[in-house]
């Protein structure tokens, strides 16, 4: 992976003859401290530490700004963090590159006016139409202080994390395998959105390409043997909802792959889909040079229903294992991969994954259960996080296995981890917590297997959705809350009212904050039938990322004090932050317009 980097710009008072010389060490130490903070705390999606470069010179004016810019241009710098403890010449030292994400950290100390420079350069950025993030600590520090206060740390990391996410997406591809599934609007891929807002290429691959590769054996035969053996050992079969049923001829005639060959087909499907997205040098060795190249993907989706699933095994195994933090080769980078080719939810999965390093969950936002309704059907009352009602997140067996929450944190609690922190014990536990149910033939005539588990821990999580609204463009919804572990009898009663072969996550939104005034309204105002969920309360990270991409956030429950957007957004109104966000994003337009 060609890693996008963060570039640190140490700016300084340009007056030689005592002033500048006295500030060189302190200014460069600020840059080094920021670089150390970022590289020690943030990772790329591939697990490597985020790379930071520092300008070869402090920047006192336009000449040195040009030296820095020339250096950064060779270093794949996507975001710049300007740092200073002192007054500098604003328009002479600012980053004027329209293609970088910008932040400025002005040191809060009384001896030198770093805050004055920060205010001056923020005014300059606003006048020049270049949104920039302002970083300023709440506490005054002594002039010789080398530490970074906690509030400044958070803002630097939030900025750098989101800027790296912007850089990771740029020039990558979203690969649509198939087309529109069952008329779902989210799977009508919007190429303008992907190109202009995310900087991404859109790729299309017909589903027949998967059949071609299966029939011509365009996959690594040795890896296929390894993957199939792993599946036989770790993917135990569960409940068969078809047992004892008599199906009409239209269903029985549609069963094309024999039952005893279905796992073999599903494993080949998973290998091939991965190779389509990323390529595989082993294919080159087998004489398939074009196929070995892949599509330079970062995310993708599979249409499945119904042209595929009416006669072939569904893609649930592929979708679940692509999105998981492990497979038959051990722990690996998750791939945001959308069921039913819901590209907009695939993008939501990608945003969540880039913000956490953790596997994203794809779900139907299926049912709102009020406390009264639960009491009526189960005879029991909800409590804890669930006391105000819950939302049933469930999908056709395509959710990542990490969502079982069988991995354990240092206290022994169930959780979801960054994929690079998964242990062999975590992987085994997730496999043991999941069984694979034969697909319901009434839905999936061709068969297949669905991952089946329930999220077995109460964790902080964030649910995400990207929507496109005519007249507005793309918008983002972000709702924080918790997963819930229900009483066994309550879970069974509620879960078996829908398809019991699918994975379940019970979600309780955090209410009373922002737009989330009730659990019911979270369900009622959700923008589509699908949502993506990641572990952690990371709504603030997502709002920062959205502001960089100029995507307004339409519905969220992130506390106001946690929101970090470019300073110039304040010029679009301060009393109504949601309206401010909309107006600023509309004015600045997409990042790659």
TrEMBL record:
Residues 393-555 form the L-fucose isomerase C-terminal domain. The active site is at residues 340, 364. One of its GO terms (molecular function) is manganese ion binding. Coiled coil: none annotated. Residues 172-356 form the L-fucose isomerase N-terminal-2 domain. Pathway: Carbohydrate degradation; L-fucose degradation; L-lactaldehyde and glycerone phosphate from L-fucose: step 1/3. One of its GO terms (biological process) is D-arabinose catabolic process. Pfam families: Fucose_iso_C, Fucose_iso_N1, Fucose_iso_N2. Residues 4-171 form the L-fucose isomerase N-terminal-1 domain. One of its GO terms (cellular component) is cytoplasm. The keyword rRNA processing does not apply. It catalyses: L-fucose = L-fuculose. It is found in: Cytoplasm. InterPro entries: Fuc/Ara_isomerase_C, Fuc_iso_dom3_sf, Fuc_isomerase_C, Fucose_iso_dom1_sf, Fucose_iso_N1, Fucose_isomerase, Fucose_isomerase_dom2_sf, Fucose_isomerase_N/cen_sf. Mn(2+) binds at residues 340, 364, 530. The keyword Oxidoreductase does not apply. Gene3D superfamilies: 3.40.50.1070, L-fucose Isomerase, Chain A, domain 2, L-fucose/L-arabinose isomerase, C-terminal. Keywords: Carbohydrate metabolism, Cytoplasm, Fucose metabolism, Isomerase, Manganese, Metal-binding. Its cofactor is Mn(2+). It is an enzyme of class 5 (isomerase). HAMAP family: Fucose_iso. Converts the aldose L-fucose into the corresponding ketose L-fuculose. Belongs to the L-fucose isomerase family. This is L-fucose isomerase. It comes from Oribacterium parvum ACB1. The gene is fucI.
